[in-house]
């Protein structure tokens, strides 16, 4: 498949894998990798990381000027919601993106479409970018998967983001069955699903950035071609050398296009 791209977005969530000390050590290694990557320096490769809540302020400091994301947010703006963290407080400490509706939150914490929509609204209201996670629970066929993706995006964004507002939103397509697996979903399946979904979504959400997530790592971006704008990475970049490899791969794909 031909590669037609001028910009790649890469992100990763550390979920709840690391200790505080390991998160900060990892962030320092990653900051050095980003500083050494020309395609990151000139903005053609964008990278964000979502550590756990307690690590956010330090991660913002270590990774600056690269954006840091939260893994979740309260659906309410403020008030008596013990244990929750507001979008306002996240914005105040320098968080620029917020992951919403990850498969684990939908499945393990029974997060509903209504809660996810409310979270998108508060995040957009604070001027941050939602990283909306969508995807089908079971492997099926691409057109059914694309229906699920479009329905989940509409349920999350249609009230908060009128079609006339060209605000940036990141949608991470993560088939639930490909998360925590040995390898990503088959490239042809992802390409077809994303192709159908993107065509239907772009008219309504012109600022859409579409990422693939689910056991992604070195090689995934090349396999997917221009079906996606980038990757939402997980376990396979716990070793920073793998992140460096993915950044090199993204840079090489961009170089193919620009030279
Ligand atoms: O859920 C994911 C990113 O948020 C993907 O995680 P894995 O790459 O570890 O499967």
Automatic annotation (TrEMBL):
Catalytic activity line of the entry: D-glyceraldehyde 3-phosphate = dihydroxyacetone phosphate
Keywords: Cytoplasm, Gluconeogenesis, Glycolysis, Isomerase
Entry GO MF terms: triose-phosphate isomerase activity
Pfam families hit by this protein: TIM
Enzyme class: isomerase
Gene Ontology CC annotations of this record: cytosol
InterPro entries in alphabetical order: Aldolase_TIM (IPR013785), TIM_sf (IPR035990), Triosephosphate_isomerase (IPR000652)
Subunit structure: Homodimer.
Family that this chain belongs to: Belongs to the triosephosphate isomerase family.
Biological process according to GO: gluconeogenesis; glyceraldehyde-3-phosphate biosynthetic process; glycerol catabolic process; glycolytic process
Cellular location(s): Cytoplasm
Protein name stated in the entry: Triosephosphate isomerase
Pathway(s) annotated for this protein in UniProt: Carbohydrate biosynthesis; gluconeogenesis; Carbohydrate degradation; glycolysis; D-glyceraldehyde 3-phosphate from glycerone phosphate: step 1/1
Main location: cytoplasm
Protein source organism: Raineyella fluvialis
Entry EC number(s): 5.3.1.1
């Amino acid at each position: 498949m031909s590669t037609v791209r001028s910009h790649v977005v890469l992100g990763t969530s550390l979920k709840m894998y690391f200790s505080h000390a390991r998160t900060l050590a990892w962030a320092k290694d990653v900051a050095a990798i980003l500083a050494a990557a020309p395609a990151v320096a000139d903005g053609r490769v964008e990278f964000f990381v979502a550590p756990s809540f307690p690590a956010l302020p330090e991660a913002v400091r270590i990774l600056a000027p690269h954006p840091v994301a939260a893994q979740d947010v309260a659906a309410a703006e403020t008030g008596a919601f013990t244990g929750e963290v507001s979008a306002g407080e996240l914005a105040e400490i320098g968080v620029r993106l917020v992951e919403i509706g990850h498969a684990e939150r939908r499945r393990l914490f029974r997060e509903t479409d209504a809660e996810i929509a409310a979270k998108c609204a508060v995040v957009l209201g604070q001027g941050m970018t939602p990283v909306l996670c969508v995807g089908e629970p079971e492997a099926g066929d691409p057109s059914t998967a694309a229906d699920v993706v479009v329905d989940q995006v509409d349920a999350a964004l249609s009230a908060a983001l009128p079609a006339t507002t060209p605000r940036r939103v990141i949608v991470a397509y993560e088939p639930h069955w490909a998360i925590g697996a040995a390898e990503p979903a088959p490239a042809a399946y992802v390409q077809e699903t994303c192709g159908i979904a993107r065509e239907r979504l772009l008219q309504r959400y012109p600022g859409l950035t579409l990422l693939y997530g689910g056991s992604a790592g070195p090689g995934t971006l090349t396999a997917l071609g221009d079906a996606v704008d980038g990757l939402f990475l997980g376990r396979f970049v716990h070793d920073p050398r793998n992140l460096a490899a993915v950044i090199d791969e993204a840079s090489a794909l961009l170089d193919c296009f620009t030279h």
